[in-house]
Write a structure and sequence with these properties.
Layout lengths: L10 H16 L5 E3 L2 E6 L3 E11 L4 E12 L1 H5 L18 E4 H5 L6 E2 L4 H22 L3 H7 L14 H11 L3 H25 L1 E5 L4 E6 L4 E6 L4 E5 L5 H13 L10
Antiparallel strand pairs: 1-2, 2-3, 3-4, 4-5, 4-6, 7-10, 8-9
Helix pairs in contact: 1-4, 6-7, 7-8
Length: about 260
């Protein structure tokens, strides 16, 4: 018996099939479809997002699908205790907790091939979203859940987990607990200040391959310097940057938070 040869379809049509496989199940969970994005609100205004990214034109990649995941807490994304009017939906890149499905579940994939049968790929992605991602969405579906459980899901929060204290400050500030907001803000600011002072005093180590070169502005000499690695290994560079600290001081002023006096070295 001769096998049935499937008619060729475009990568866009392939993603349509995969996305619709997920959407058919997730519609009942409150998700709505906006182009390549599935979105729902929880706790009134917290966004939970699943985005299907068809390739990467900038890198000439057209046969790979990435499934981007995100959670957006308005006050954390906008850095305001009183947030603006909600939009109909938010993109994954507007979220302040973000990851990719393949990275989160660590299944050995780097994206998902669009050359494979889309029905099979769609069922696999649906299974992983249902078993691995939905429990995270449920746990982090409210501000109470985010405050109590966010640190449990570090693999879901690789991009911005260094901002947890600042985000928690924003959540408490939105709730009107300005004392707790100021406490957490100062704890975060102090940690950033300590990191800056350490980088200023001791530098930071950067791994370079043999012959690799790095050009940077040296904070010790206030000049542009070039380092070329004589062999593969770590080199120390002095390029401490206080722009984030300056941003935090400006933010504290906007939020009416007093920052503990701690001088820069």
């Amino acid at each position: 018996m001769f096998g049935f040869k499937k008619e060729n379809i475009s990568s866009s049509q392939t993603v349509d099939i995969i996305e619709n496989t997920v959407y058919e199940r997730f519609l009942a969970l409150g998700f709505k479809k906006y182009g390549r994005t599935l979105h729902r609100f929880t706790d009134t205004d917290i966004s939970q997002v699943i985005n299907f990214q068809n390739g990467c034109p900038q890198k000439g990649i057209s046969d790979t699908l990435w499934v981007n995941l995100g959670i957006r807490i308005p006050e954390c994304a906008e850095r305001k205790f009183v947030t603006e009017t909600l939009k109909k939906y938010y993109h994954e890149y507007e979220c302040n907790i973000r990851t990719r499905l393949d990275s989160f579940i660590g299944d050995g994939n780097v994206g998902y091939s669009l050359k494979k049968p889309p029905e099979k790929t769609g069922e696999y992605i649906l299974k992983r979203l249902t078993e691995d991602v939905l429990p995270v969405f449920e746990a982090l579906g409210s501000r109470d859940g985010i405050l109590s459980s966010r640190r449990r899901f570090s693999a879901f929060d690789e991009m911005y987990n260094h901002l947890i204290l600042l985000d928690e400050s924003m959540i408490y500030g939105r709730r009107g607990d300005t004392l707790k907001a100021a406490e957490l803000f100062n704890e975060y600011y102090t940690a950033c200040l300590r990191e800056y002072n350490d980088a200023l005093k001791y530098g930071r180590k950067v791994y370079l391959h043999k012959g690799e070169r790095i050009v940077y502005h040296c904070t010790k000499t206030n000049k542009t310097e070039t380092v070329t690695a004589p062999e593969s290994g770590y080199v120390t560079i002095y390029n401490a940057d206080n722009r984030h600290l300056e941003y935090l001081l400006g933010l504290a002023e906007q939020l009416n938070i007093s920052v503990n006096d701690s001088p820069l070295l």
